[in-house]
């Protein structure tokens, strides 16, 4: 064999394609089935990614590892569907080392588990991260902003991890927190009186919001745990804590408004409405975020479920039914074969046919026959079903159906039926070739129907057997076609039907 | 995996089965082991259910003929062919698949298989096909013959062949293929065209070589455009 040097076909040969043609994507601009899937998923994940990017763009936060990094892993959590994962899988495995995805800690946390999560993600001590957040607070409140944004947009780890937090660390974290808030307040108030007025009450509102958000995290954990008892017990305390948080936010905003009372009635009204809206928005942020996330997840789950159901239904209606029929007819070999062939054909067209599932379609063939190949395939299937013989059409070239070609199809069908009925063979070969028009010569469509059955003497056919004479000969001649018959007792039969093509219409 | 001793000068054809369906493997094995009373006798020396296993098995056992499934997890028959050939195997590959899809057929042929038959083939025909590829011939099912004819056909507007040596079929090759596609056996083709069976085999092998090596743009576009079942 000349094969060994052929293992790398693209390397040789001066011809056009630079790579093996079978790995090349289609060049006509029609993207493969998998590409749009992964592309379509990118925006769905963008809500989280975009938010985190927002956190990173806060003043000076880019310099800090905790706030800069989260924008990087585009889809870190089990958000992407399998298709997107599979598509990204190859490069991801080589590109990313085993760094845990960014999630907020659920156990051993002080506030929202953000610092712990960032520490886990970056592989540094949590104290450094906390210190960084506090330090950043002095830079235009970036620390608090980054923390809040991370809290909102990074999801909690899905499985609780056992972490033991020593009392000392707890105290230290608490100290850092107080220090951060206290110092930032001092820094803010010492700057200007107005800022002080704002910082005081707004700081209070921030603390309130933190309490409520933390409670939202707890509620989600309980929802995941699906523990009714905890939910009831948690319910009361949770409500209390939420109310406390809401009260803090309301108080903070109220103080802020009272402080600005002298600004005039109209402005006060505007500010009050704005502040109320702001308060409600801030308080309900966790629920909004969760709602959007849950919606997306549910939609995906429903799509998967629908797909699964449809496949199950199809298999039940077709394959299982056929298998049941086959078992009942097990004694009748011809019938079993007919059923099996019919089912095979049906499943094939469902999977691989035009619009088939394996091609990313919905398995439903489109429309009626418009081409010779499709029509021949269909009549071959009919004959196969009706007469329990195997009919395997081989098709070369194709042409749009017109009146002449329709006649050709009907004549071919009659020839197949004859072969199935009279030859005694269990298999009929059908070959269709369309020769497109070349210089000066009109194109032709040819159909060969061949069996290896008993054959017959054409001169001895009874006068009342009209099939061949009427359905085949006469029909072909009416449309300008020709029929050639080759047969003989014991030699099988081959019918050759030839039909000139109309000038246009070849493909 | 039992490797029987090579007695009597190794006239048997050692066959290796690759298919991810154990049921199908055992069916083929039973059919080939039963034999059809002709020689050389086929002997199944091993089987594999995955790409990795197949590559290792082919390298280790060095069978004469590998019956190769086209659809398998992990790249399928084309991947087995690629890796086994990269490892320098001398085995001959015959693709055996349930799929009649044009892309599958053409891609496995392009990867170096010496023939392609569908799983509905009878045990006797399969044994014949194995003997034929072992003897260095190509095995074309009528459907494969149709695909190749279609791929090499000169449609209006088709790109002109770059290298006529491999990008075009001769008239004789076309005739042989056409008869193959019509379901003729080699002997019948020989009788029809007034040539010897040996000449028919030569033509078919030549067509196989062209199918495998032609870089003709038309061939690639055809395989992806064609959505036959």
State the largest interface: A-B, 41 and 50 residues
Rg of chain B (C-alpha, Å): 18 Å
Q: Bin the strand percentage of chain A.
A: 5-15%
N-to-C CA distance of chain A: 37 Å
Number of helices of chain A: 14
Strand content of chain B: 5-15%
Shape, per Cα inertia axes of chain B: globular
H and E order of chain A: HHHHHHHHHHHHEHEEHEE
Low-confidence stretches of chain B at least 5 residues in length (pLDDT < 50)?
A: 1-9
Tally of DSSP β-strands of chain B = 6
Mean of all residue-level pLDDT scores of chain B: 80
> Oligomeric status of the shown chains?
heterodimer
The succession of helices and strands of chain B, N to C, reads EHEHEHEHEHEHHHHHH
Protein name (chain B): Response regulator transcription factor
Organism (chain B): Pseudonocardia nematodicida
Keywords (chain B): DNA-binding, Phosphoprotein
Modified residues (4-aspartylphosphate) (chain B): 69
